[in-house]
Design goal:
alpha+beta, two-stranded antiparallel sheet, 1 helix, 4 strands, about 20% strand, flat
């Protein structure tokens, strides 16, 4: 976990292919909102820990 401009930022691997192209934010590739939403759904179904959603 890192802190960038007062935001907590984490970097991790994801074992599934992305459904949409990545977006570029200041030269950094980030997952689309659809893919991030699906990652959250996967976390809910897979382990459902409260920490996965804040």
């Amino acid at each position: 976990m890192a802190r960038v401009s007062d935001l907590h930022v984490g970097f991790f691997g994801y074992g599934y292919p992305l459904l949409e192209p990545t977006d570029s934010v200041e030269g950094v590739a980030v997952a689309s909102l659809v893919d991030v939403g699906l990652m959250k759904l996967d976390a809910l179904i897979g382990r459902g820990s409260r920490r996965d959603f804040y």
